[in-house]
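Schema walkthrough. Field components (list of strings):
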Amino acid sequence: MAEPTVIVSKRAGYRILTLNRPDRLNAFNETMHDELRLAIEDAERDETCRSLLLTGAGRGFCAGQDLSDRLARPGEQVVLGGTLEAHYNPLVRKLRALPIPVVCAVNGVAAGAGCNLALACDIVIAAHSAAFVQSFARVGLVPDSGGTWILPRLIGMARARGLALLAEGLPADKAEHWGLIWKAVADGALMNEAEKICQQFANAPTYGLSLIKRALDTAMTNSLDQQLDLERDFQRMASLSPDYTEGVRAFMEKRKPNFTGAKGKLE
Ligand code: T3D
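Field assembly_structure (string):
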């Protein structure tokens, strides 16, 4: 039997999804797209799964599209767009819309769509030896998978232009310093740190976190007035969740809250 291109490891309260084509630095082919989609959908159906951890096998995180699937024969013209429509765009939309937080442990180089896949996750931590490369311009392409949207929002237009137009690798430490990622950690500590975050999420008020995700995403395009109204509505929704009641009770009783992650009554 062929090796899975995505390895799923189930933990108490979260799942680890490991991209597994290490000889190609975990570049995407159709099979890996399909297996990743199924793994995410399966996790979504599991109510005990309260966060996802995405990482890569071997020395790289993900090198984007497998270019060996894109080599034109003499006289042939390869026309792109279909795979973005069918796979990359739904993947980014799915990660942003998931009602649980997604942690990305960038274990090595993240290039092309692999870089933007990492940046679509909610918390990105990276090994010191990792690097982020908007490698598209090296092969005559345009940053995709949300790259042109997320880069200026995270690091400002000047740095976004530099990364996209020069296609230079950005080391993990500098990525942290620029605000592209949450933090860079020692290589040997990466998975431990990432799993600690997932363990925190496994005991968190998951429904409230899902509203935070949604509120921060809409903040990118809403006016202040729209966002204030949304915060009012989301606060109302959060307050109807059992975790809010428990959170306040636990605070008053000076004990740790026991959050179930259950939804509020308004959804
Ligand atoms: O439908 C569509 O196509 C549109 C969607 C586009 C999305 C995209 O992601 S386009 C961008 C595609 N990705 C790239 O252009 C990145 C290509 N890779 C690199 O530039 C470099 O490999 C890295 C900067 C990521 C890492 O460099 P380095 O020196 O650490 O490793 P390496 O030696 O280049 O790669 C190691 C092996 O992985 C090597 O194979 P070998 O020689 O050991 O047999 C290399 O060919 C292979 N590899 C790396 N990236 C890819 C790949 N094989 C196929 N596709 C790759 N993207």
